[in-house]
Amino acid sequence: MFISGMSGNEIYCLRLKGLVPAEITVGNSVRSLGISGGLSSFGRSLTGGEIGAITEMISEGRHAAIQRMEEEAKKHGATGITGVISELRTLAGYTEFLSQGTSVQDETRQLQFFSSAASGVELYCHLDAGYVPHKFVMGNIAYALGVGRGLMGSVRTLQRGEVREFSSMYNEIRHTALRRLRAEASAAGANAVVDVNVKMLPHGPGTVELLLTGTASHHDGISHGP
After folding, report:
1. I need a labelling partner for 150 at 20 to 30 A (CA). Which of 14, 21, 53, 219 fits?
2. Which has more confidence, 158 or 61?
3. Are 82 and 101 in contact (CB under 8 A)?
4. CB burial class (10 A; 0-12, 13-18, 19+) of residue 113?
5. Which of 105, 179, 181, 202 is nearest to 139 (CA)?
6. CA distances from 196 to 7, 136, 163, 166, 182 (A)
7. Of all helices (H) and strands (E), which one includes residue 167?
8. pTM higher than 0.70, yes or no?
9. What contacts 24+ positions apart, CB below 8 Å, involve 164-170?
10. Is residue 35 packed enough to be buried (19+ CB in 10 Å), middle (13-18) or exposed (0-12)?
11. For residue 114, which of 97, 136, 87 has the smallest C-alpha distance?
12. What is the pLDDT of residue 159?
């Protein structure tokens, strides 16, 4: 007996591509920022900009959870994982990173092991369009507005018009996260990223995490460059 997170429609669509559902797979990692990391993060939250200690902790935690999820799927003899999600939760002062998806087996034996953010229906469409999934990838950044920029932005709310302090911040962090997503996909041998999802997540007082996730894929009709 296996437990699957797929709907009947997803199972039907993937069966047309020779993929059958297998076990739900889970990976997690519990992390602590530590005293030194907390102090440096507090100082950075006052001056503003990327909080490197938090970005690194979140990135390491998410990747560790994803790796353990993939290892569990391989133990079940799976060819890949669909519907991958990456979440974080705060537990008694610690941060738990959780990754989950439904593994699949390839009866045609044409695909190499992959992990994908796509649902069963989306994966069917990607394969039909010539996109071969490689790996669930992400790019993130933890960022603080800072006291100075926050005060300037607060003053601007009293007037009509663009609040450039906030526009500049959001533009900077989005492009940084996008560069990291692109670099991770390139390292996985992909020439495209599909299923991209953008989330802005709070992470403590005055700190946010911008997270971009997607499926690193390869298409023969697209340039083979990075």
Report:
1. 53
2. 61
3. yes
4. middle
5. 181
6. 22, 10, 27, 23, 11
7. helix 164-187
8. yes
9. 169/48, 169/143, 169/145
10. exposed
11. 136
12. 63
Q: Cα–Cα distances in Å, from 187 out to 196, 219, 226? A: 17, 16, 9
Contact between residue 6 and residue 26 where contact means Cβ atoms under 8 Å apart: no
Cα dihedral across residues 110, 115, 118, 119: positive or negative: positive
* Nearest to 207, CA basis, from 148, 150, 142: 142
The tokens for 139 are 């790019």
Q: Give how far Cα 167 sits from Cα of 147, 164, 172, 206, Å.
A: 16, 5, 9, 16
- Residues 126, 131, 134: CA angle, nearest 5 degrees: 105
Strands 80-91, 114-115: pairing kind:
parallel
Cβ neighbours of 149 (radius 10 Å): 18
Q: Which amino acid is at 31?
A: R
Q: Tens digits of per-residue pLDDT, 100-130?
A: 999 999 998 889 999 999 999 999 999 999 9
Report how many helices (DSSP H) and strands (DSSP E) the chain contains, helices first.
Answer: 6, 8
To which residue do tokens 């997540």 refer?
201
**What tokens were used for 44?**
């950075």
pLDDT tens, residue by residue, 37-83: 444 444 445 556 788 888 898 999 999 999 999 999 999 899 999 99
- Give the pair of three-digit tokens for residue 82: 């669909």
4 backbone φψ class: left, alpha, beta (φ>0; ψ -120 to 50): beta
Cα angle vertex 132, ends 128, 136, to 5°? 125
